[in-house]
Amino acid sequence: MKPVLYAASDGCPAFAHLIGVVGTIECGACFPTHLGKLPHEQRDVVARFQKLLLHQLRSELRCFDWTLEYRPSSRRRDSIDIFGRGSESVIAIELDKPRADQVAKKFVARMAALPADVPVWFASVCYPGTERMNKNECIKYFDYCNALSQRLGGHYAGFIIQ
Which residues contact 146 (CB under 8 A, 6 or more apart)? Predict the structure, then answer.
């Protein structure tokens, strides 16, 4: 079980490398039994996946300084699940269930909080949710986030773990 790419900016080889790293993460061991568990148990499963992804990013993209739960503003409690700071860009990776409202809210909030003078590479990685969650609507919002990210001078990728 690996993240499947549904939307992505193109034209940047370094961003394509990030997409490749995220897309090759084997995450089947993290998610087969998390549904139906209590919320705190599900958080533990997602935290294990977050650390797995962070480890892979640190191994493959060494030119970035990686942080878990990065808070871009001391005025707000919002934190970015995985954050990378490079010499010419920053990377924000958010992990959520495949809900379009969550994808859109996180994208808007993080893009507003991050510095405007550096390109932002943003990735939404959606882990398995309930059958009622509308994957197609989530994919539609990936496309919207991608369009907005490009207008802001950044890059975007949207993944869903099947």
Answer: 7, 8, 9, 156, 157, 158
